[in-house]
Protein backbone atom coordinates (compact mmCIF):
# COMPACT_ATOMS: atom_id res chain seq x y z
CA UNK A 1 0.00 0.00 0.00
CA UNK A 2 1.57 3.23 -1.22
CA UNK A 3 0.46 5.10 1.91
CA UNK A 4 2.68 3.03 4.20
CA UNK A 5 6.29 3.90 5.00
CA UNK A 6 9.14 2.31 3.03
CA UNK A 7 10.64 1.15 6.33
CA UNK A 8 7.84 -1.41 6.65
CA UNK A 9 9.08 -3.23 3.55
CA UNK A 10 12.32 -3.91 5.43
CA UNK A 11 10.69 -5.93 8.23
CA UNK A 12 8.51 -8.98 8.68
CA UNK A 13 6.03 -9.88 11.43
CA UNK A 14 7.30 -11.97 14.34
CA UNK A 15 7.15 -15.67 13.40
CA UNK A 16 6.71 -16.62 17.04
CA UNK A 17 3.58 -14.48 17.24
CA UNK A 18 2.28 -16.04 13.98
CA UNK A 19 2.64 -19.61 15.23
CA UNK A 20 1.09 -18.75 18.59
CA UNK A 21 -1.85 -17.25 16.73
CA UNK A 22 -2.30 -20.34 14.56
CA UNK A 23 -2.25 -22.53 17.64
CA UNK A 24 -4.89 -20.27 19.20
CA UNK A 25 -7.06 -20.56 16.08
CA UNK A 26 -6.83 -24.37 16.13
CA UNK A 27 -7.74 -24.36 19.82
CA UNK A 28 -10.74 -22.14 19.08
CA UNK A 29 -11.84 -24.76 16.56
CA UNK A 30 -11.82 -27.31 19.38
CA UNK A 31 -8.51 -29.03 18.58
CA UNK A 32 -6.42 -30.27 21.52
CA UNK A 33 -3.29 -28.14 21.10
CA UNK A 34 -0.21 -28.10 23.31
CA UNK A 35 1.68 -24.89 22.80
CA UNK A 36 5.45 -25.11 23.03
CA UNK A 37 5.88 -21.87 21.14
CA UNK A 38 5.55 -19.23 23.82
CA UNK A 39 8.47 -17.28 25.22
CA UNK A 40 7.33 -16.75 28.78
CA UNK A 41 7.53 -18.59 32.11
CA UNK A 42 4.31 -20.41 32.99
CA UNK A 43 4.67 -19.39 36.67
CA UNK A 44 2.68 -16.60 38.26
CA UNK A 45 4.45 -13.40 39.38
CA UNK A 46 5.57 -13.86 43.04
CA UNK A 47 3.11 -12.55 45.63
CA UNK A 48 5.52 -10.03 47.23
CA UNK A 49 5.88 -8.35 43.82
CA UNK A 50 2.12 -8.20 43.27
CA UNK A 51 1.69 -6.78 46.78
CA UNK A 52 4.25 -4.06 46.06
CA UNK A 53 2.29 -3.06 42.97
CA UNK A 54 -0.99 -2.96 44.89
CA UNK A 55 0.65 -0.86 47.61
CA UNK A 56 1.99 1.50 44.94
CA UNK A 57 -1.53 2.00 43.60
CA UNK A 58 -2.87 2.62 47.10
CA UNK A 59 -0.12 5.18 47.75
CA UNK A 60 -1.08 7.01 44.60
CA UNK A 61 2.05 6.18 42.61
CA UNK A 62 -0.06 6.58 39.53
CA UNK A 63 1.45 9.58 37.81
CA UNK A 64 4.05 10.12 35.11
CA UNK A 65 7.52 9.11 36.22
CA UNK A 66 10.89 10.46 35.05
CA UNK A 67 11.62 9.18 31.53
CA UNK A 68 14.55 6.96 32.59
CA UNK A 69 12.64 5.53 35.56
CA UNK A 70 11.93 6.25 39.22
CA UNK A 71 15.05 6.81 41.35
CA UNK A 72 14.43 3.79 43.66
CA UNK A 73 14.33 1.50 40.62
CA UNK A 74 17.46 2.98 39.08
CA UNK A 75 19.19 2.49 42.43
CA UNK A 76 17.91 -1.10 42.62
CA UNK A 77 19.24 -1.75 39.10
CA UNK A 78 22.67 -0.32 39.95
CA UNK A 79 22.70 -2.49 43.11
CA UNK A 80 21.68 -5.56 41.09
CA UNK A 81 24.53 -5.07 38.62
CA UNK A 82 26.99 -4.75 41.50
CA UNK A 83 25.60 -7.69 43.48
CA UNK A 84 25.09 -10.17 40.67
CA UNK A 85 27.53 -9.12 37.96
CA UNK A 86 30.29 -7.24 39.79
CA UNK A 87 29.64 -4.20 37.59
CA UNK A 88 29.84 -0.63 38.90
CA UNK A 89 27.13 1.56 37.43
CA UNK A 90 25.78 4.76 38.94
CA UNK A 91 21.97 5.03 38.93
CA UNK A 92 22.42 7.83 36.36
CA UNK A 93 23.98 5.26 34.01
CA UNK A 94 20.80 3.15 34.04
CA UNK A 95 17.56 3.40 32.12
CA UNK A 96 14.20 1.68 32.55
CA UNK A 97 12.05 0.88 29.53
CA UNK A 98 8.74 -0.72 28.67
CA UNK A 99 10.24 -4.20 28.41
CA UNK A 100 13.66 -5.22 27.29
CA UNK A 101 12.31 -4.82 23.79
CA UNK A 102 12.07 -1.05 24.11
CA UNK A 103 15.56 -0.82 25.56
CA UNK A 104 17.00 -2.67 22.58
CA UNK A 105 15.01 -0.69 20.06
CA UNK A 106 16.01 2.66 21.58
CA UNK A 107 19.67 1.63 21.78
CA UNK A 108 19.65 0.88 18.05
CA UNK A 109 17.62 3.99 17.30
CA UNK A 110 20.11 6.12 19.23
CA UNK A 111 23.19 4.77 17.47
CA UNK A 112 22.54 3.35 14.01
CA UNK A 113 23.16 5.34 10.84
CA UNK A 114 22.23 4.00 7.40
CA UNK A 115 24.69 1.30 6.37
CA UNK A 116 25.94 0.57 9.87
CA UNK A 117 26.39 -3.14 10.50
CA UNK A 118 25.40 -5.20 13.53
CA UNK A 119 26.95 -8.65 13.91
CA UNK A 120 24.38 -11.18 15.09
CA UNK A 121 25.15 -14.84 15.78
CA UNK A 122 22.48 -17.14 14.31
CA UNK A 123 20.19 -18.59 15.50
CA UNK A 124 19.07 -15.27 16.96
CA UNK A 125 16.04 -13.80 18.71
CA UNK A 126 13.70 -12.76 15.92
CA UNK A 127 13.40 -9.10 16.88
CA UNK A 128 17.09 -8.12 16.58
CA UNK A 129 17.36 -8.00 12.78
CA UNK A 130 13.94 -6.40 12.40
CA UNK A 131 14.72 -3.61 14.86
CA UNK A 132 18.08 -2.99 13.19
CA UNK A 133 16.49 -2.91 9.74
CA UNK A 134 13.81 -0.48 10.94
CA UNK A 135 16.60 1.82 12.13
CA UNK A 136 18.27 1.64 8.71
CA UNK A 137 21.12 -0.66 9.77
CA UNK A 138 22.33 -3.91 8.24
CA UNK A 139 22.24 -7.10 10.29
CA UNK A 140 25.26 -9.32 9.56
CA UNK A 141 24.42 -12.90 10.43
CA UNK A 142 27.02 -15.42 11.43
CA UNK A 143 25.72 -18.97 11.49
CA UNK A 144 26.82 -21.09 14.43
CA UNK A 145 26.79 -24.90 14.23
CA UNK A 146 25.03 -27.60 16.18
CA UNK A 147 28.46 -29.23 16.63
CA UNK A 148 29.61 -26.14 18.54
CA UNK A 149 26.32 -26.10 20.49
CA UNK A 150 25.17 -22.99 18.61
CA UNK A 151 27.97 -20.83 19.99
CA UNK A 152 29.95 -18.30 18.00
CA UNK A 153 33.71 -18.86 17.84
CA UNK A 154 36.38 -16.17 18.09
CA UNK A 155 37.43 -16.84 14.48
CA UNK A 156 33.87 -16.35 13.25
CA UNK A 157 33.52 -13.07 15.14
CA UNK A 158 36.88 -11.81 13.87
CA UNK A 159 35.85 -12.53 10.27
CA UNK A 160 32.46 -10.83 10.58
CA UNK A 161 33.80 -7.49 11.84
CA UNK A 162 34.28 -4.76 9.21
CA UNK A 163 35.01 -1.02 9.49
CA UNK A 164 31.21 -0.54 9.34
CA UNK A 165 30.47 -2.75 12.34
CA UNK A 166 28.75 -0.69 15.03
CA UNK A 167 27.53 -3.34 17.45
CA UNK A 168 28.14 -6.95 18.33
CA UNK A 169 24.73 -8.26 19.45
CA UNK A 170 25.29 -10.88 22.15
CA UNK A 171 22.67 -13.03 23.87
CA UNK A 172 23.51 -15.65 26.50
CA UNK A 173 21.63 -17.80 27.42
CA UNK A 174 20.18 -17.64 23.95
CA UNK A 175 16.67 -17.46 22.72
CA UNK A 176 16.16 -19.75 20.70
CA UNK A 177 18.98 -22.25 21.37
CA UNK A 178 19.39 -22.03 25.15
CA UNK A 179 23.16 -21.91 24.62
CA UNK A 180 25.07 -20.03 27.32
CA UNK A 181 28.73 -19.02 27.08
CA UNK A 182 31.17 -20.10 29.78
CA UNK A 183 33.80 -17.66 31.06
CA UNK A 184 36.41 -19.04 28.64
CA UNK A 185 34.08 -19.04 25.64
CA UNK A 186 33.09 -15.45 26.37
CA UNK A 187 36.69 -14.36 27.01
CA UNK A 188 37.65 -15.66 23.56
CA UNK A 189 35.04 -13.32 22.07
CA UNK A 190 35.91 -10.32 24.24
CA UNK A 191 39.59 -10.75 23.27
CA UNK A 192 38.54 -10.29 19.63
CA UNK A 193 36.48 -7.23 20.55
CA UNK A 194 39.44 -5.68 22.36
CA UNK A 195 41.27 -5.67 19.02
CA UNK A 196 38.42 -3.72 17.38
CA UNK A 197 37.84 -0.58 19.46
CA UNK A 198 35.16 0.80 17.13
CA UNK A 199 32.78 -2.10 17.90
CA UNK A 200 30.33 -1.73 20.79
CA UNK A 201 28.71 -4.64 22.63
CA UNK A 202 25.00 -4.90 23.22
CA UNK A 203 24.48 -7.79 25.59
CA UNK A 204 20.97 -9.14 26.12
CA UNK A 205 21.12 -10.85 29.50
CA UNK A 206 17.38 -11.54 29.83
CA UNK A 207 17.88 -15.23 30.67
CA UNK A 208 20.78 -14.67 33.06
CA UNK A 209 19.16 -16.47 35.98
CA UNK A 210 18.07 -19.50 34.02
CA UNK A 211 21.32 -21.47 33.87
CA UNK A 212 21.56 -25.04 35.05
CA UNK A 213 23.81 -27.46 36.89
CA UNK A 214 27.11 -25.92 37.91
CA UNK A 215 27.16 -23.44 35.02
CA UNK A 216 28.34 -20.00 36.16
CA UNK A 217 26.90 -17.00 34.34
CA UNK A 218 29.07 -14.12 33.07
CA UNK A 219 28.26 -10.95 31.15
CA UNK A 220 30.80 -9.39 28.72
CA UNK A 221 31.81 -6.26 30.71
CA UNK A 222 32.47 -8.50 33.72
CA UNK A 223 34.77 -10.83 31.78
CA UNK A 224 36.57 -7.92 30.08
CA UNK A 225 36.46 -4.66 32.05
CA UNK A 226 38.23 -3.06 29.07
CA UNK A 227 34.88 -3.20 27.27
CA UNK A 228 32.98 -1.31 30.01
CA UNK A 229 33.08 2.01 28.12
CA UNK A 230 31.50 0.50 25.00
CA UNK A 231 29.04 -2.01 26.41
CA UNK A 232 25.33 -1.66 26.95
CA UNK A 233 24.29 -4.32 29.46
CA UNK A 234 20.59 -5.01 29.05
CA UNK A 235 18.37 -7.11 31.27
CA UNK A 236 14.82 -7.19 32.61
CA UNK A 237 12.35 -8.71 35.02
CA UNK A 238 10.22 -10.53 32.43
CA UNK A 239 11.89 -13.93 32.52
CA UNK A 240 13.68 -13.81 35.89
CA UNK A 241 10.56 -13.01 37.94
CA UNK A 242 7.78 -14.23 35.62
CA UNK A 243 6.75 -10.64 34.87
CA UNK A 244 6.33 -10.63 31.08
CA UNK A 245 3.07 -8.68 31.22
CA UNK A 246 4.40 -5.95 33.51
CA UNK A 247 6.69 -4.66 30.73
CA UNK A 248 9.81 -3.60 32.56
CA UNK A 249 13.28 -3.90 31.05
CA UNK A 250 16.44 -2.01 31.86
CA UNK A 251 20.01 -1.39 30.86
CA UNK A 252 23.20 0.26 32.05
CA UNK A 253 26.03 1.72 30.05
CA UNK A 254 28.03 4.83 29.19
CA UNK A 255 26.17 7.97 30.26
CA UNK A 256 26.13 9.58 26.77
CA UNK A 257 24.35 6.54 25.35
CA UNK A 258 21.88 6.40 28.24
CA UNK A 259 21.12 10.11 27.76
CA UNK A 260 20.52 9.56 24.03
CA UNK A 261 18.16 6.67 24.78
CA UNK A 262 16.40 8.84 27.38
CA UNK A 263 15.88 11.53 24.75
CA UNK A 264 14.30 9.08 22.32
CA UNK A 265 12.09 7.53 25.00
CA UNK A 266 11.03 11.00 26.12
CA UNK A 267 9.49 11.65 22.71
CA UNK A 268 8.05 8.17 22.47
CA UNK A 269 6.49 6.53 25.55
CA UNK A 270 8.09 8.55 28.41
CA UNK A 271 8.59 6.63 31.65
CA UNK A 272 7.44 3.00 31.89
CA UNK A 273 4.25 2.21 33.84
CA UNK A 274 4.67 3.67 37.36
CA UNK A 275 3.04 0.70 39.09
CA UNK A 276 5.13 -1.85 37.21
CA UNK A 277 8.25 0.12 38.13
CA UNK A 278 7.43 -0.18 41.84
CA UNK A 279 6.80 -3.89 41.34
CA UNK A 280 10.25 -4.16 39.72
CA UNK A 281 11.84 -2.40 42.73
CA UNK A 282 10.44 -5.20 44.90
CA UNK A 283 11.53 -7.86 42.39
CA UNK A 284 15.15 -6.65 42.49
CA UNK A 285 15.39 -5.66 46.16
CA UNK A 286 13.02 -8.16 47.78
CA UNK A 287 13.41 -11.89 48.56
CA UNK A 288 15.04 -13.78 45.68
CA UNK A 289 13.74 -17.28 46.47
CA UNK A 290 11.61 -17.40 43.31
CA UNK A 291 14.76 -17.59 41.17
CA UNK A 292 16.16 -20.92 42.46
CA UNK A 293 12.63 -22.36 42.49
CA UNK A 294 11.98 -21.60 38.82
CA UNK A 295 15.51 -22.57 37.86
CA UNK A 296 15.07 -26.01 39.43
CA UNK A 297 11.75 -26.55 37.67
CA UNK A 298 13.17 -25.51 34.30
CA UNK A 299 16.25 -27.68 34.71
CA UNK A 300 14.08 -30.77 35.32
CA UNK A 301 11.99 -29.93 32.28
CA UNK A 302 15.06 -29.37 30.11
CA UNK A 303 16.35 -32.82 31.05
CA UNK A 304 12.97 -34.40 30.34
CA UNK A 305 12.56 -32.72 26.96
CA UNK A 306 16.13 -33.32 25.77
CA UNK A 307 15.89 -36.99 26.68
CA UNK A 308 12.49 -37.53 25.04
CA UNK A 309 13.33 -35.58 21.86
CA UNK A 310 16.57 -37.49 21.37
CA UNK A 311 14.45 -40.66 21.40
CA UNK A 312 12.38 -39.37 18.46
CA UNK A 313 13.34 -40.83 15.05
CA UNK A 314 15.50 -38.40 13.13
CA UNK A 315 15.78 -35.64 15.77
CA UNK A 316 19.07 -34.51 17.31
CA UNK A 317 18.65 -32.34 20.41
CA UNK A 318 21.72 -30.80 22.07
CA UNK A 319 21.45 -30.16 25.82
CA UNK A 320 21.70 -26.39 26.33
CA UNK A 321 22.99 -24.69 29.46
CA UNK A 322 20.10 -22.29 29.98
CA UNK A 323 16.91 -20.35 29.14
CA UNK A 324 13.76 -22.45 28.61
CA UNK A 325 14.26 -23.51 25.02
CA UNK A 326 15.80 -26.39 23.13
CA UNK A 327 16.63 -26.24 19.46
CA UNK A 328 16.62 -29.73 17.93
CA UNK A 329 17.68 -30.44 14.36
CA UNK A 330 15.10 -32.11 12.10
CA UNK A 331 17.56 -32.44 9.20
CA UNK A 332 17.05 -36.21 8.96
CA UNK A 333 13.31 -35.72 8.35
CA UNK A 334 13.68 -33.30 5.45
CA UNK A 335 12.55 -35.03 2.25
CA UNK A 336 10.32 -37.51 4.13
CA UNK A 337 6.53 -37.71 3.85
CA UNK A 338 4.44 -36.46 6.77
CA UNK A 339 1.40 -38.57 7.81
CA UNK A 340 -0.75 -36.23 5.67
CA UNK A 341 1.21 -37.31 2.59
CA UNK A 342 2.90 -33.94 2.19
CA UNK A 343 6.66 -33.99 1.67
CA UNK A 344 8.54 -32.13 4.38
CA UNK A 345 10.79 -29.81 2.39
CA UNK A 346 11.73 -27.31 5.09
CA UNK A 347 11.69 -26.95 8.87
CA UNK A 348 8.63 -24.73 8.43
CA UNK A 349 6.82 -27.67 6.76
CA UNK A 350 7.92 -29.85 9.68
CA UNK A 351 6.47 -27.43 12.23
CA UNK A 352 3.22 -26.88 10.32
CA UNK A 353 2.65 -30.62 9.77
CA UNK A 354 3.43 -31.36 13.40
CA UNK A 355 0.89 -28.73 14.48
CA UNK A 356 -1.77 -29.92 12.03
CA UNK A 357 -1.27 -33.67 12.73
CA UNK A 358 -0.49 -33.83 16.43
CA UNK A 359 -1.56 -30.41 17.72
CA UNK A 360 1.89 -29.49 19.02
CA UNK A 361 2.93 -25.89 18.36
CA UNK A 362 6.65 -25.13 18.01
CA UNK A 363 8.53 -22.54 15.92
CA UNK A 364 10.59 -23.31 12.81
CA UNK A 365 14.31 -22.63 13.01
CA UNK A 366 14.55 -20.76 9.72
CA UNK A 367 12.70 -17.86 11.38
CA UNK A 368 15.61 -17.64 13.84
CA UNK A 369 18.14 -17.72 11.02
CA UNK A 370 19.37 -21.31 11.33
CA UNK A 371 17.75 -24.51 10.20
CA UNK A 372 16.54 -27.11 9.63
CA UNK A 373 15.72 -26.94 13.32
CA UNK A 374 12.77 -26.02 15.46
CA UNK A 375 12.44 -24.27 18.81
CA UNK A 376 10.68 -25.96 21.66
CA UNK A 377 9.79 -23.79 24.64
CA UNK A 378 9.52 -25.97 27.73
CA UNK A 379 7.89 -23.28 29.87
CA UNK A 380 4.87 -25.47 30.56
CA UNK A 381 3.89 -28.25 32.98
CA UNK A 382 5.74 -31.58 33.05
CA UNK A 383 2.52 -33.44 32.16
CA UNK A 384 1.98 -31.33 29.08
CA UNK A 385 5.63 -31.60 28.11
CA UNK A 386 5.59 -35.39 28.37
CA UNK A 387 2.44 -35.60 26.30
CA UNK A 388 3.82 -33.16 23.70
CA UNK A 389 7.09 -35.08 23.41
CA UNK A 390 5.19 -38.37 23.01
CA UNK A 391 3.24 -36.75 20.17
CA UNK A 392 6.45 -35.47 18.56
CA UNK A 393 7.93 -38.99 18.82
CA UNK A 394 4.81 -40.43 17.17
CA UNK A 395 4.87 -37.81 14.42
CA UNK A 396 8.55 -38.47 13.65
CA UNK A 397 7.96 -42.25 13.63
CA UNK A 398 5.06 -41.73 11.19
CA UNK A 399 7.19 -39.71 8.73
CA UNK A 400 8.27 -42.11 6.00
C1 LIG B 1 16.32 -12.79 24.08
C2 LIG B 1 15.22 -11.89 24.47
N1 LIG B 1 15.49 -10.59 24.63
C3 LIG B 1 14.54 -9.71 24.96
C4 LIG B 1 13.23 -10.10 25.13
C5 LIG B 1 12.20 -9.05 25.46
O1 LIG B 1 11.78 -9.12 26.74
P1 LIG B 1 10.70 -8.09 27.34
O2 LIG B 1 9.52 -8.91 27.69
O3 LIG B 1 11.36 -7.52 28.56
O4 LIG B 1 10.43 -7.05 26.33
C6 LIG B 1 12.89 -11.44 24.96
C7 LIG B 1 11.50 -11.87 25.07
O5 LIG B 1 11.07 -12.87 24.56
C8 LIG B 1 13.92 -12.35 24.62
O6 LIG B 1 13.65 -13.65 24.44
TrEMBL record:
One of its GO terms (molecular function) is pyridoxal phosphate binding. Its EC number is 2.6.1.-. It catalyses: L-aspartate + 2-oxoglutarate = oxaloacetate + L-glutamate. CDD domains: AAT_like. Keywords: Aminotransferase, Pyridoxal phosphate, Transferase. The keyword Transferase applies. Its cofactor is pyridoxal 5'-phosphate. SUPFAM superfamilies: PLP-dependent transferases. GO terms for biological process: amino acid metabolic process. Residues 31-392 form the Aminotransferase class I/classII large domain. PROSITE patterns: AA_TRANSFER_CLASS_1. Homodimer. Belongs to the class-I pyridoxal-phosphate-dependent aminotransferase family. This is Aminotransferase. It comes from Ciceribacter lividus.
Amino acid sequence: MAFLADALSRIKPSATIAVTQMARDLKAQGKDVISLSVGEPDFDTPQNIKDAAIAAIQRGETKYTPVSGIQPLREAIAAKFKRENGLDYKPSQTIVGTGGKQILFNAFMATINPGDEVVIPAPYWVSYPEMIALCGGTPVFVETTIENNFKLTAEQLEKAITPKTKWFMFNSPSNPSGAAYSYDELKALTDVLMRHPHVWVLTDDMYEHLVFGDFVYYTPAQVEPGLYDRTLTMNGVSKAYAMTGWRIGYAAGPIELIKAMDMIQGQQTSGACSIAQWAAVEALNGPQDFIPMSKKAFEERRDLVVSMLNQANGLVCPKPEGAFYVYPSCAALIGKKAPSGKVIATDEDFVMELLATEGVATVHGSSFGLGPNFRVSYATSNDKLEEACRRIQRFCADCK
